[in-house]
Design brief:
This protein is mainly α and 156 residues long. It has helices at 2-37, 44-65, 75-78, 82-118, 129-133, 135-153. The longest helix is centred in the middle third of the chain and has 37 residues, at 82-118. The protein is elongated and about 65 Å long.
Length: 156
Amino acid sequence: MQKTYNFLNKSIENMLAAIFGLLVIDVVWQVASRYIIGQSSSFTEEFARFSLIWLAVLGAAYINGQKEGHLSMDFLVTKLPPKKQLVRKKNIQLFMILFAIIVMVIGGGNLVYITLKLGQTSPALHVPLGYVYAIVPISGLLIIFFCIHRILETKE
């Protein structure tokens, strides 16, 4: 499981870096074309929006997988005795799994299915919107994996 964890972390890091790099190139091109040519490209704003969606949702899954990288309010948890801290941390991971299953995997999966079935496409790039929204259930699955990994690695 640790090999899979390490592979997923490295893969997500690389994907986030690539998305961020493409986003920077896109925005620089948008600004340059607006001021140099005097007319903005039609696809750049839409591409930037889709890139930000992927960056934010995939980044949330990535940060969830990091042991110390995400924000948390652990004031009340640290006041508990060590055994109760473990129980509380496992319960939090279980709630996160439940949220990821219901909202991200099931809800996001339904959103992807409906938008693909209806044939909705983006106006400028003509990309099926289901592909854009597919990051939600994918990130939900990643969050579930990372939560299970954290529960299993926690020693009692």
